[in-house]
């Protein structure tokens, strides 16, 4: 009888944990997808230093706005965003990708990874646009990614 009770408790715990883990993964996929969708809906918006709205974005303003619309609060600057989330060695859509003027410097630019080597960002030269991590300008400045 005790073995039945223990096995029932163990199975119930496993099922509960399994369902909640699936729920968390689905929730993360949902807000990442939503943030990407919001960012893409702002393609072509001009760059504006300090900009945090569809009238003009800087890089961290775009990321903060996009994730905010998806229900996730992020800090205002790329350097502060770099302290959030967990390091991502295998990039997934929705990860934040960071860039700095040198490997020792704080990140000064951030974008949202889209998959297939592409990310969306607000750059001073092109406004909100999609580019690649292999872009000759961005590649040497890449310092890492965070999964939010």
From TrEMBL:
Signal peptide as annotated in the record: 1-28
PROSITE patterns xrefs: NLPC_P60
Keyword Signal listed: yes
Domain NlpC/P60: 29-148
Coiled-coil residue windows: none
Pfam family, any one: NLPC_P60
Family statement: Belongs to the peptidase C40 family.
Alphabetical list of SUPFAM superfamilies matching this protein: Cysteine proteinases
Keyword Protease: yes
Molecular function via GO: cysteine-type peptidase activity
UniProt keyword annotations, A-Z: Hydrolase, Protease, Signal, Thiol protease
Protein's name in the database: Peptidase P60
GO biological process: proteolysis
Gene3D superfamilies (UniProt xref): endopeptidase domain like (from Nostoc punctiforme) (3.90.1720.10)
């Amino acid at each position: 009888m005790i073995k039945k009770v223990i096995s029932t408790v163990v199975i119930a715990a496993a099922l509960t944990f399994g369902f909640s883990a699936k729920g968390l993964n689905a929730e993360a996929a949902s807000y990442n997808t939503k943030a990407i969708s919001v960012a893409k809906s702002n393609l072509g918006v001009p760059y504006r230093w300090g900009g945090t709205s569809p009238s003009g974005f800087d890089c961290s303003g775009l990321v903060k706005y996009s994730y905010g619309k998806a229900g996730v609060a992020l800090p205002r600057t790329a350097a502060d965003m770099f302290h959030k989330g967990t390091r991502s060695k295998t990039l997934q859509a929705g990860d934040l990708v960071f860039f700095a003027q040198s490997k020792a410097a704080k990140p000064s630019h951030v974008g949202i990874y889209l998959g297939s080597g592409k990310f969306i960002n607000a750059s001073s030269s092109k406004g909100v646009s999609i580019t690649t991590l292999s872009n000759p300008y961005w590649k040497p400045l890449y310092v890492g990614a965070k999964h939010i």
